[in-house]
């Protein structure tokens, strides 16, 4: 079973920046397409972004396009989500997981997530 560990979430002011990190526990991320998802209280989990196994393809939800950037460093076994110009509606718990083919369907290996709160 794949295990993921998310980190980097915190309280940030609107318009600020934050970088989330996704680490693999016990396996190598290289070759796996990885997606970032988020879930706000009372709402369904939604896809934010995905990066292909090679890192050559990145997909973004319309509500973060132009503000968030997904990247990966296979040498460090990490995937990142750089968040810029954050908005209060970006507040949520963020999760990373395998997302085969970046087709919007997660493989359902969920970690604890990392909490992002955007507030002044």
Could you characterize the architecture of this molecule?
With 120 residues, the chain is mainly β. The protein has no helices and 10 strands. The strands form 2 sheets. It has a 6-stranded mixed beta sheet, with no helix packed on it. A 4-stranded antiparallel beta sheet has the order 1-3-8-7, with no helix packed on it. A hairpin with a 6-residue loop joins strand 5 (46-51) and strand 6. The chain starts with a strand and ends with a strand.
What is the radius of gyration?
13 Å
Mean pLDDT: 95
What is the succession of H and E elements? EEEEEEEEEE
**Poorly predicted ranges:** none
> Helix share of residues?
under 10%
Strand order of the largest sheet: 2-10-9-4-5-6
Cα shape: globular
Query: Main β-sheet, in a few words?
Result: 6 strands, mixed
Percentage of residues in DSSP E strands: over 45%
Question: Which helices and strands appear, and what pairs or packs with what?
Answer:
Elements: E1 3-7, E2 11-12, E3 18-25, E4 34-39, E5 46-51, E6 58-60, E7 68-73, E8 78-83, E9 92-98, E10 114-118
Parallel strand pairs: 2-10
Antiparallel strand pairs: 1-3, 3-8, 4-5, 4-9, 5-6, 7-8, 9-10
